[in-house]
Amino acid sequence: xxxxxxxxxxxxxxLGMLGPPLSVGQMAATAPPPGAASKVVPSxxxxxxxxxxxMGAESCGASTCHGSAAPRxxxxxxxxxxxxxxxxxxxxxxxxxxxxxxxxxxxxAKNLRMAEPPSKSNRCVVCHTxxxxxxxxxxxxxxxxxxxxxxxxxxxxxxxxxxxxxxxAASASIGMYDTxxxxxxxxxxxxxxxxxxxxxxxxxxxxxGHPDLVFDFETYTAMLPPHWxxxxxxxxxxxxxxxxxxxxxxxxxxxLARRTHQRAATAWPEFAEFECFACHHDVNNIESxxxxxGEENRLQEGAPWDxxxxxxxxxxxxxxxxPWNPARYYILRQVVQAIAPESRxxxxxxxxxxxxxxxxxxxxxPAQIAAAANRAVQVTDAxxxxxxxxxxxxxxxxxxxxxxxxxSVSIGGAGPRVAEQAVMAVETFVPVARKSGKQLAxxxxxxxxxxxxxxxRVKPEEYNREQFEQFATQMRAIHSFLTQ
Length: 484
Ligand code: HEC
Ligand code: HEC
Ligand code: HEC
Ligand code: HEC
Known about the structure:
Elements: H1 2-18, H2 83-90, H3 103-111, H4 122-128, H5 149-153, H6 163-166, H7 168-172, H8 182-193, H9 203-208, H10 217-223, H11 239-262, H12 276-279, H13 309-313, H14 327-330, H15 332-339, H16 341-359, H17 366-387, H18 394-406, H19 408-413, H20 416-429, E1 434-435, E2 438-439, H21 444-454, H22 465-483
Antiparallel strand pairs: 1-2
Helix pairs in contact: 8-11, 11-17, 15-16, 15-18, 16-17, 18-20, 18-22, 21-22
């Protein structure tokens, strides 16, 4: 079997290398996005600048390789060999290209006044396919495969024929991406689910019809049909959550810096950097007296006035200026408090600068915002080194839960995106936590609170005082259970 896989691969390799770099036509017409030219080709391997071809999903999907219908559990490595079938039938990544042909994408293209269809535009295919510059596409590369194996596992040319014999570490040195490393894995997901130098979902795309990018590493990993054997090293139960939060925070700060920079001339401030629902919500009590003529409509002493939850909460800065979206930090800082308290103050300080500058965005120089964001990036880098090897035991999980739930009023008041992150964090740490030796996940008080909390996520644009109170009540219920 090993022999078969390897020889199939040799044929592909030879074809790929002898022929002229084959164009499958799909990407030929598109110019690289601005600023992409120097970034498209990552240098792979330690100290190597060699460029490897992208081989396409079929090169992995032979029935004797990763396309087996039933698990085989390869003798030495234990690999099930059903990965291709799993991905193709159950994983949304396999359909990511098809999405670009659907009406929703066509409406977006119209709104964005795109010159070419989404399926041919670098504006979309960078995230919705195994994006490869034309000169690195082998004969078997197919853009239609969507987000296929090499989008996560790295360009396969170098290691395809030998990875069974050589093993993981040796393959990683010739282009196999180290998905076993949790930090690297999170970085890979975030490159599309938050964005990077060449991948960008901004407010213009969202207004045109793209979903907002909400990403939580642990939750999203759990949503994928796993084509891998789940091991404790996967970090389920808190470690992946923490690593993913730090990586996503760092990358979203870099994105903020990039956006101030690249788009200063055209579209700064970039609305997608702010809390969406500070702008997108219903408003009351705004009719002028023009519409409410007559004495009976004047404000009466003691008459009810439908104050909104924001007006009741008050504003951290100038009323009516949308705040910077703090969702990627608000909950994380409670976890940082528990695991690296010495980092908390520095991070708080840097991010409060970002937030203050964003709150006076009209008066702040975009360059100042970028500088503050970049300083915060350095702090997150240091923090990442601390959390990479984190082990979440039941005590730590309980401390995290106590911290997060104790902050419920402030979290709820920061808006639905922050509340949503809190719910995902609670869902992550509850299964690990224990109280008096008993699993928290078995406690009816906790399970019922969790169930009600999940409803807070349903419609963020309708987040209102009632939901805010409902959120705070359920968080308090968990908190008092933990502390009583
Ligand atoms: C930064 C990466 C990125 C870029 C660029 C991007 N997308 Fe997406 N797109 C995503 C991700 C990630 C999702 C899934 C979001 C989720 O479910 O959390 C998605 C989801 C979608 C969906 C909804 C799919 C569904 O199953 O409901 C459509 C439609 C879509 N994208 C179209 C486009 C089009 C058209 C373009 C180009 C104009 C584009 N995308 C550019 C990353 C991107
Ligand atoms: C969205 C990203 C992504 C895509 C696409 C993807 N994988 Fe994976 N793959 C992972 C992650 C994450 C793991 C788990 C970490 C690890 O073992 O490296 C993994 C693990 C594996 C493993 C190791 C399984 C084990 O039990 O140890 C194999 C083999 C594999 N993938 C093959 C494939 C093949 C073949 C394809 C294409 C059909 C594919 N992957 C597509 C992310 C991806
Ligand atoms: C090359 C870009 C890319 C990479 C890398 C990537 N994704 Fe995705 N992901 C997408 C796109 C695009 C979609 C939307 C596909 C669709 O809706 O058809 C998506 C969809 C998903 C979905 C489905 C969401 C839903 O609405 O059901 C999950 C879950 C997910 N990704 C998790 C991950 C995880 C975990 C990783 C890292 C191991 C990862 N992704 C890496 C681009 C990517
Ligand atoms: C500073 C205020 C502001 C912020 C913050 C903001 N938007 Fe918008 N958004 C607007 C305006 C103005 C429009 C265009 C007018 C309209 O159609 O509502 C718009 C349009 C939209 C539309 C299309 C409108 C429609 O009819 O469906 C969507 C969807 C959208 N925004 C989503 C978001 C998301 C998601 C975020 C956060 C990532 C966000 N917005 C942040 C002001 C904002």
